[in-house]
Design goal:
Layout (H helix, E strand, L loop, with lengths): L2 H12 L11 H9 L3 H20 L8 H12 L1 H13 L12 H22 L37 H13 L1
Helix pairs in contact: 1-3, 2-3, 3-4
Length: about 180
């Protein structure tokens, strides 16, 4: 890192994303929203800060991992922390989140940007943790999320069956 990059990274690392006076601070909300452990949430926030650094030093558009993007989305809702403190005082410039428009070509664009992000990450920080920086994918996640009031509803996972189970059912059906 250049001396300027080192100073920038130190400012980003020292930035306190949690409000010490908040009863339910950013990290607790992030952990609650995605059912992450406290340690995993802490690690995602550290990786989010690395991503912020990479955005500032990259001479191109880059894309975050899924977990880092979730932290970024939530941080954008904390407008004073994000715009006044982070962008205004730490980064010293605006940093807008520009989502895709759902077009076919967006998949390839973000795939390429994400690959570039991993290359730049490797240059500055070495190998990214694979449980936070998922492998590049051309298509988006196939996971469906929805907020559920857990005080009113139970959450019961759908059962999964192996191929051998379906083979067993098929054989049983053939007997009749």
């Amino acid at each position: 890192m250049t001396p300027e990059e080192t100073q920038l990274y130190q400012r980003i690392c020292q930035f306190e994303i949690d409000d010490s006076l908040a009863a339910f601070p950013f990290s607790a909300k992030l952990s609650w929203e995605y059912q992450w452990s406290g340690i995993y949430t802490y690690r995602v926030i550290q990786e989010y800060k690395k991503f912020l650094f990479l955005v500032m030093v990259a001479n191109q558009e880059i894309s975050p991992s899924t977990a880092v993007d979730r932290a970024w989305h939530l941080h954008l809702l904390y407008t004073q922390s994000y715009w006044d403190e982070l962008c205004g005082k730490v980064l010293k410039r605006s940093l807008h989140h520009i989502p895709g428009l759902g077009r076919k070509e967006d998949g390839l664009k973000y795939y390429y940007q994400y690959c570039q992000t991993l290359d730049i990450y490797h240059k500055y920080f070495g190998m990214p943790p694979d449980n936070i920086w998922n492998p590049p994918k051309y298509k988006g996640e196939k996971i469906s999320f929805q907020w559920v009031d857990r005080e009113k509803y139970w959450i019961i996972p759908k059962p999964t069956f192996s191929r051998s189970y379906f083979h067993y059912l098929y054989k049983k059906e053939q007997q009749f």
